[in-house]
Amino acid sequence: MNATAQRQLQHESPRAEQPSELHPDLNRAHVRFINLGKTYDSQHGPVDALQNIDLAIQRGEVFGIIGRSGAGKSSLIRTINRLERPSSGRVLIDQVDISEFDEDHLVQLRRRIGMIFQHFNLMSAKTVWQNVELP
Ligand SMILES: Nc1ncnc2c1ncn2[C@@H]1O[C@H](COP(=O)(O)OP(=O)(O)OP(=O)(O)O)[C@@H](O)[C@H]1O
Ligand SMILES: [Mg+2]
Fold first, then answer.
1. Ligand 1: which of 33, 75, 83, 117 to mutate, judged by most atoms within 8 Å of the beta carbon?
2. 53 within 8 A of 78, measured Cβ to Cβ
3. pLDDT surpassing 70 at residue 90
4. pLDDT value at residue 26
5. Domains of the chain
6. Could you report the per-residue pLDDT of 92-124, keeping only the tens digit for each?
7. Cα radius of gyration rounded to whole Å, the chain
């Protein structure tokens, strides 16, 4: 995935080589990806799942991320609560860079973020309530 949110960045600084790093309005966003990159090491070599992702998502906004299978949607979303650690760039949540969060801070952060996993592994032998109860 290689994306620049043109809607958010249209008021951006004209200096293309430094798109949004210091833009105060964008960096006040609820969720902010700055030049985010994620490369996985696989058996077949490095996989560049995310490159130069620059997005600003405002509080209360309903924001969809769409793309073909393998485009990097899950990789991107999983950086919001650091289930994936970015290879480059930064993720700001309410203007706080979460890259240096220790385990305690990550636990606190994850308690504030709801996530429905793509492979959510419900137990068919249990009721809905028992599945909810389990964690
Ligand atoms: N743990 C991993 N190790 C190596 N490569 C990975 C890993 N996780 C994802 N990838 C690769 O990164 C790329 C992006 O994967 P990702 O799961 O983020 O895509 P996706 O858009 O969520 O796909 P889908 O629509 O199928 O869920 C793919 O090429 C995938 O094979
Ligand atoms: Mg996915």
1. 75
2. no
3. yes
4. 76
5. 2-133 (3.40.50.300)
6. 999 999 998 999 999 999 999 999 888 888 999
7. 17
